[in-house]
Amino acid sequence: MRVVTTAQTPELDVQPTPLALLLLGREADPKSERGVECPGDLPSPSDPDLVERARAAKEKLGDKVFVLGHHYQRDEVIQFADVTGDSFKLARDAAARPEAEYIVFCGVHFMAESADILTSADQKVVLPDLAAGCSMADMATAEQVAECWDVLTEAGVAEQVVPVSYMNSSADIKAFTGKHGGTICTSSNAKRALDWAFEQGEPSTTKVLFLPDQHLGRNTAVRDMGMSLDDCVVYNPHKPNGGLTAEQLRAARMILWRGHCSVHGRFSLDSVNDVRARIPGVNVLVHPECKHEVVAAADYVGSTEYIIKALEAAPAGSKWAIGTELNLVRRLANRFAPEGKEIVFLDKTVCFCSTMNRIDLPHLVWALESLAEGNLVNRIEVDQETEAFAKLALERMLALP
Ligand code: SF4
């Protein structure tokens, strides 16, 4: 089996990003949603005492620390998580633990930002490796989105547009969304968010600017809301006017930002056809960040929480091919194997999220030991104005029916 990371993944529809240069976390990248400095004197990955060191530091911190583990994290990290979940669940879990002074977020940068926005001012959010960003979140910068809004204004449609931004976006993009009357969504509530957005104006003329994941936007609009592919246009921030004419913008109902997840974007129709041929009777279950043709060919589609629940409810002897990040799929395969459920990764090529994988045990040990010694490291802090508008957008999501 071939092993690749997303940083090695050839992507056809985006401009090159500086990601490859940042893999060692040694450069500064002001255009990225993440920081990249890693000032830590990290323990060696070969240190045989890492597990014991993490346990001891966590015990010393006691209730002062709360460790959050995203579903896509490595097993070596997840074992120290007080709670696991998707990014939004984790941010809410952190807010529900006000006695925890330190929130150690084992996930990526935008998730730590969301946790900082939703927790109290006394709580400090720590990301063990500042180079753990998200390539999808990086595909929509504040400058690009402001320019897009100018293009929409020029075309005379901005007043009809309601922005809806996926949770997987930087705090700046969430703030833009809040400022322009929009809401945030997750992969679980994207349909409810779009229903809400279209109710904000005259339904026949209202448009949604969906950021930054074109696939989640398109899949929700077409699969869940009965729109046609022709109702959607793709705004490419690397082309003048997004590569769209004013007529195209006026005719569209969904203006999709040209962003995608490097992990979920790998799955193809061939992956689905191939697994069906290899495993007769297999159920194909994919995340809505996958391409539209993959979602259309799948048997079931849903968020990570949906995937976990579907496998919990699956009968013994059932077979599943899962289209989401490999750390989670492997963990689920191991968990459900004793119940006689066969679970495989949808693609033949193994692909982890390279930035999620940056949080490893040495980084976690370094962060926990630093906190235990009274050194606050790698704090993620969103400025007050950004936080206020981002929170507005998040609160609109929380109020969705
Ligand atoms: S799996 Fe995709 S969306 Fe999630 S952090 Fe990695 S690149 Fe970003």
TrEMBL record:
Pfam families: NadA (PF02445). GO terms for biological process: 'de novo' NAD+ biosynthetic process from L-aspartate. It catalyses: iminosuccinate + dihydroxyacetone phosphate = quinolinate + phosphate + 2 H2O + H(+). Its EC number is 2.5.1.72. Its main location: cytoplasm. Iminosuccinate binds at H70, S87, Y166, M167, N168, S187, H287, P288, E289, T304. The keyword Cell wall biogenesis/degradation does not apply. Keywords: 4Fe-4S, Cytoplasm, Iron, Iron-sulfur, Metal-binding, Pyridine nucleotide biosynthesis, Transferase. Binds 1 [4Fe-4S] cluster per subunit. Its cofactor is [4Fe-4S] cluster. It is an enzyme of class 2 (transferase). [4Fe-4S] cluster binds at C134, C261, C353. NCBIfam families: nadA (TIGR00550), PRK09375.2-2 (NF006881), PRK09375.2-4 (NF006883). HAMAP family: NadA_type3. Belongs to the quinolinate synthase family. Type 3 subfamily. Catalyzes the condensation of iminoaspartate with dihydroxyacetone phosphate to form quinolinate. This is Quinolinate synthase.
